Amino acid sequence: MGLKIENVSKKYGTKQVVDNISIKLDKPEVFGLLGTNGAGKTTTIRMLLGIIKKDSGTITWNDKEVDRKSVNFGYLPEERGVYPKVKIMDQLKYFAELKGMKKEETIKSINSWAKKLKVEEYLELPAEKLSKGNQQKIQFMTAVIHNPDLIVLDEPFSGLDPVNTEILKNVIIDLVKKGKYIIMSAHEMHTIEEFCTDILILNKGKTVLKGNIQEIKNTYKANRIKIESTEDITEIIKEQKLKIENSHDNSYVVKIDNEKQGHDLLKEIVKKKIEINKFEILKPSLNDIFIEKVGGKNA
């Protein structure tokens, strides 16, 4: 069971928007689809969901060509769309009906999801009375109300405050535990690192990086150290000719070219009998790797 996108391409006129990309999900997980604006992410998603036709390649679900009949999918698009004047309950019933749900199971599903997402009190209100964040949660409900097997989430946390972000994170984790396959597109790299084991980064329609996040990061050398001390060590860091990237309350993130520089700095701090609460050598973050692959000369 699973999703396979193999050697898929798409042109608009003479412009190659997606160029021979491949993705494989063979177990329930959250897969990260990344790229700058215009990289081809949305086109890939629309081909996957059968909204637009691919020019070449294959997209299969459980070894069957994907179409709207062969896969039960849910889609949260980046462009939000709730009807401002229509009651939330009526909107959810309408979307459930489009997915072929019966009235009894629709009401049960709406109430269950409203409780999970803490929007029960808004069901009888028109959408325009809701905050942007609560409208976002309603839109998420339309994507999952029919219990889809494959779910595509495009910027799912956009517009959410920290409390609602945490609610939605827990819901997504629970969906994977229940066997759902999820493709997530997001600009917040820390979100992708939190959820995804595997990623694909697109740039101008081409795959520039693909694979297991941890394995990718392991191919990079350490480029930072994080130090927490009991005293100000700014001058010691400068004496070592190292750059402080961030600092506050005697906590420092320092850029290094190699691990030896980090250990040499630690020796100097200890020599001056300054107490260290934390010393951690860091690999590049996914954000660093993303910028390297799609920024500057690659953009």
Keywords:
single chain; 299 residues; alpha/beta; Rossmann fold; Alpha-Beta Plaits; 2 domains; six-stranded mixed beta sheet; four-stranded antiparallel beta sheet; 10 helices; globular
Précis, in short:
With 299 residues, this protein is an alpha/beta fold. Helices cover 34% and strands 29% of the residues. Helix 2 (88-98) crosses helix 3 (103-116).
Overall description:
The protein has 299 residues and is of the alpha/beta class. The chain is built from ten helices and 14 strands. The chain has helices at 41-48, 88-98, 103-116, 132-144, 162-177, 189-195, 213-218, 234-239, 259-271, 286-294; strands at residues 3-12, 15-25, 30-35, 56-61, 64-65, 73-76, 150-154, 181-185, 198-203, 206-212, 224-229, 243-248, 251-255, 276-282. The strands form three sheets. Strands 6-7-8-3-9-10 form a six-stranded mixed beta sheet, with helices on both faces. It has a four-stranded antiparallel beta sheet with strand order 2-1-4-5, with helices on one face. Strand 9 (198-203) and strand 10 (206-212) form a beta hairpin.
